[in-house]
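Final report, Chapter 2: Outcomes

The project's central promise was a pipeline that accepts a single protein chain and returns its three-dimensional structure in a standardized token representation, suitable for archiving and comparison. That pipeline is now operational. To close this chapter, we reproduce one record exactly as it appears in the project archive, with the input sequence first and the structure output second.
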Amino acid sequence: MSPGGPFVKLLCGGTAVSGHVAGARRFSVVGQLGLWGASLVLLLISAVGVAAATDVVTYHNDTRRTGQNQEETILTPVNVNSATFGKLFNVSVDGMVDAEPLYLSAVTIPGKGIHNVLYVETENDSVYAFDADVGTLLWNVSVLGAGETPSGDHGCNQISPQIGITSTPVIDRSRGPHGTIYVVGMSMNAGTYFQRIHALDVTTGQEEFGGPVTVQAKYPGTGDNTHSGFVVFDPSQYAERQGLLLLNGVVYLGWTSHCDHRPYTGWVMGYDANTLTQTSVLNLTPNGSEGSVWQAGAGMASGGANIFLLDANGTFDTALDANGFPAKGDYGNAFLKLGVSNNRQLAVADYFEMHNTVQESDEDVDLGSGGVLIVPVMTDANGVQRSLAIGAGKDGNIYIVDRNNLGKFNPNQNAIYQEIDGVLGGGIWSMPAYFAGNVYFGPVNNRLLQFHFSRAKLSTSPVSQSPEAYPYPGSTPSVSANGSQNGIVWAIGHYGGSSILRAYDASNLAHEIYNSGTALNGRDRIGQATHFGTPMIVNGKVYVGTTNGVAVFGLLK
């Protein structure tokens, strides 16, 4: 998200505000300056309008994947209720919306003026730009090549019935002439499959930087799909599900399988954001099998330099080298920290494996079903500053690592900063959220759970929980707030063929303040939200991807 610029801070008492609030306060400033200064004030506000408003340019709001928007000045626990808040409209698209919608404020669209823009991608390989406030279509493009169609589901119901654009893209507003959205699409033509990375102009959808670029890769090894001493990336065997990460001018991709159908291994790749040139390739199980990166759609995380992710079930070498790393470089079912060298090459810098990791992989009870959450630096009971990251998967445990020393592997016990066993019940197929020292989890067949940090330790039991449970796949919560005030936790529940958007007081999940299923006459029904759907909240509205569009909620007129 982008905070307000210095001119807006000056005009509004030193506080960065969203575009809506800047507009509301504009009149009080004009009144104080009189008519002589009105034009100057309006000119200044217009000049900084883009910087003043809030953008959502990546999965779960930021690269730490906190899921929090602390610049929400419109929605509050007081006005979010069925009397004053509800569904405003739907935008329709040509396929399933598995990617989280993204948002840019005050975008100039050629021939159509300035709009707040909602970006939506579908499994039919289409990208849409809508006016985020009224739903008008601004442009749409297909990323399919000539004669191509989206891929079928390869006999796997995880992404079905077609596979096109699955992962949440990432936007760089400063890249290219007008800003760029990076998208990965899968397609096929006469039995030949393609994975491509696209860089699209945010104002037109036109390809940039010589794109698209076809994803190709090989890595030294003897694992699945090895040829002539290299593990080879087969585009038909993979899908890009985890949200894209843009870090220091490189777009990072991670790849998952189709229902564990071998042969496949674990791939992470980097592409230059300016040229789409491949900068790096890393295989996480080069001498074994499996070990994919999918994270229930959550993007790989970063605090600024390194990359953190949860790897799925796969080969792990219990024989270690002199430095405590797997002897053959296989990291299935690991909590991973990737380093990036000066020449932008990826390598595993540190890792954590559970003492029973082989058993967990064999039983498909692994970490790969969740995503990494990086929390702010905290001070422990001894006055030591701690840089922590949180992960959880199918075993129902919460794993908290020190980002400077993840713990590696010990076959007898887990050498980890903090571990809370069994507290998530049904396990995690989702991503937690963070706000004001709290961590919110949505486990399978369990209630939404709130935990709280104190002196750099997470509470060992929930401090609050929702009244109702969330069926498979649980829920990925998001948080809206105005700084540390007016916190609201949003979550999507899946109930058979229908879904419900719920909102809770962030300080106490027992207090549900809104439920889209209770509005009179079915006013707020959204149909079926997508599998790992994540609510996106910005500038007074909540956006929910569905099987055929996006449902948009906000304050009723």
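Archive annotation: Residues 1-53 form one domain.
This record, like all others produced under the grant, will remain available to the consortium after the project formally closes.
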